[in-house]
TrEMBL record:
Designated name of the protein: SGNH hydrolase-type esterase domain-containing protein
Gene3D superfamilies hit by this protein: SGNH hydrolase (3.40.50.1110)
Native source organism of the sequence: Rhodococcus jostii
Source species, domain of life: Bacteria
InterPro entries: SGNH_hydro_sf (IPR036514)
Membrane-traversing stretches: 20-37
Lineage, opening ranks: Bacteria, Bacillati, Actinomycetota, Actinomycetes, Mycobacteriales
Key words, A-Z: Membrane, Transmembrane, Transmembrane helix
């Protein structure tokens, strides 16, 4: 009886129909799975390294700063922007840059924080601290700097936090140009540990149309001149007076004559 049932035309046709629909369901499921994977991979930024571009919106990067239209600069960064370790303190490298360029300046230094890192006191990253500041000038140029404290953060977090900060700066100062000074090595260990962070910030700057200046890859601070320009302040590496003058000169030259 069972053999007769299995050999019947109706049963054979039913089994073929079942097989057909199983095949269709498997194909549809596979298609949905491939689509989900593709959208997920484009929506989540990978851990970046040199040679691995970050998938983001395409924006034509700004190549140079138009210094001819700059009458005031707002500096924003980490403890190096707090004018520490200077004699007197008002002679921080930002003020030296402003003097060399003949412009007004204002500096916001958010010690221990980064573009994503909220700092050891958890007060917030650069953007959250910037938003509560009341700028006394309407800058023609906003110079962002730092990032050393982001060295242990996932690259995608640093990337998107930087992009968010740029949006916040454009919202408050829509006419201002923006440039980014990448992280500078302050210890021998940083020469290698900052490479991925430098690449991440370079990519983020390019995608946001921001001028990028890299003290690391341009060799401003090298192993041989590190003792001449960097000193320890309360256990943290900071530019000494000679280092601030040197860093200011390099930054002013980079703004006047950006590398290709």
């Amino acid at each position: 009886m069972i053999g007769k049932f299995l050999r019947s035309p109706d049963t054979t046709r039913d089994l073929r129909n079942v097989g057909f629909w199983v095949f269709i369901i498997v194909c549809v499921g596979a298609g949905i799975g491939m689509y989900w994977l593709s959208t997920t991979r484009t929506a989540v930024v990978r851990e970046v390294h040199p040679g691995s571009p970050i998938p983001t919106k395409v924006i034509s990067p700004a190549k140079t700063v138009d210094l001819g239209s700059v009458k005031s600069i707002l500096f924003m960064g980490d403890s190096w922007f707090e004018e520490q370790a200077s004699t007197p303190s008002v002679e921080g490298f930002m003020n030296i840059v402003a003097q060399q360029l003949g412009v007004q300046s204002k500096a916001y230094g958010f010690g221990s924080a980064g573009f994503h890192d909220p700092g050891i006191d958890n007060r917030g990253n650069f953007e959250s601290r910037f938003l509560v500041e009341d700028s006394k000038i309407a800058p023609d140029l906003v110079l962002l700097g730092g990032g050393i404290h982001d060295v242990m953060e996932p690259s995608r977090n640093v990337y998107y936090s930087f992009a968010s900060l740029v949006d916040a700066v454009h919202t408050r100062f829509p006419a201002a140009q923006i440039a980014l000074i990448g992280p500078a090595p302050a210890t021998e260990e940083m020469f290698s540990s900052l490479l991925t962070l430098d690449y991440t910030l370079r990519s983020a700057a390019a995608d946001s149309g921001v001028v990028y200046i890299s003290p690391l890859t341009e060799g401003w601070i090298r192993v041989e001149n590190l003792p001449d320009y960097v000193m320890s302040v309360e256990g943290l590496p900071s530019l000494n007076d000679k280092g601030k003058e040197y860093f200011a000169r390099k930054l002013a030259d980079a703004l006047r004559h950006p590398s290709e």
